[in-house]
Amino acid sequence: xxxxxxPTTLDDAGVFHDVMMAAGRHDLDPRASWHRVTLTDVAVSxxxxxxxxxxxxxxxxxxxxxxxxxxxxxxxxxAVLPEARGRGLATLLVRxxxxxxxxxxxxxxxxxxxxxxxxxxxxxxxxxxxxDPEAVYxxxxxxxxxxVVLVKAAEVHA
Length: 158
Hints:
The chain has helices spanning 13-27, 39-48, 89-103, 121-126; strands at 4-7, 51-56, 59-69, 72-80, 108-113, 130-131, 148-153. It is α+β, with helices and mostly antiparallel strands. The protein has a 7-stranded mixed β-sheet, with helices on both faces. It has one domain (4-153): 3-Layer(aba) Sandwich (Aminopeptidase), CATH 3.40.630.
């Protein structure tokens, strides 16, 4: 069966958080602020801003959220369960955020990669993002080192 990407609901918050934590345990540096995200943080984010899930046979395999900042839409909390990787789910989720940004008139999508996990940067570059050393991630955790910020013009993909 093929995964379907759909917008999140508040009912997704618990599973969204579980997917994040499973993905983080698998391959993120333990110093990353990712590990300090609580279920309450996720519920507030989804309730105020939204996101998408990749679902197959009723099981959520991947998640992503977004948050507006002026004419920019930030992409946050992209995670795919370790056993579901390599199937293009991260790309589908990123493209869903990009399409949302384009439909709603945002000029660009901006994301941040923890300085502890810069090995993720090439994945985003492969999706057309570019590192912008001048850009600022407005929602960075102040207790963490500055992240690597990547940007891409908002556009709809076929």
